[in-house]
Amino acid sequence: MKIQIITTGGTIDKVYFDANSEYEIGGPVVGKILERMNPSFEFEVSQLLQKDSLDLTDEDRQLICATVTDSEHEHILITHGTDGMVATAQALKDLGQKRVVLTGSMKPAAFAETDAIFNIGTAIGALNAVAPGVYIMMNGQLFTPDEVFKNYETKRFENR
Q: How far is CA 123 from the centre of its chain?
């Protein structure tokens, strides 16, 4: 199995710059994380966007949909900001036999205490097991786009 990984930005890729004392979206971290894990599958990382998901537009979501549709791969992982993840998952439709899982993190991957590695690992596990369709894998749970929301109080994704 070869997994195409499409990165769109979000907290998972945020880095802290002392010079301006704020977080910015850096380059994709998922490839570096996977290389350290010595996976038994092939993967290809493509940076599509470098945005906070609050800044994603309808045009950005159309670009994500077109990229997934045009992909030759059946297994696609999308790293995405958590605030707009559900909207993007809902925008992805008519994928034929493709399996698409979106994931991200509540804390940057650069942090010592991050959920990024856990979420990436469980999302890849889900890609091996799910039927064709679009899913969100966060906090150790697999969701379909129409049954999930981000709970800002608990800082978790939950069923509606």
A: 9
Helix (H) or strand (E) holding 100: strand 99-103
Full set of structural domains in the chain with CATH = 2-159 (3.40.50.1170)
Burial 135-155 (b: 16+ CB within 10 A, else e): bbbbbeebbebeebebeeeee
Chain length of the chain: 160
pTM over 0.90: yes
Average pLDDT over residues 5-22: 83
pLDDT tens for each residue of 44-53: 999 999 999 9
Residue 116 belongs to what H/E stretch? Answer: helix 116-129
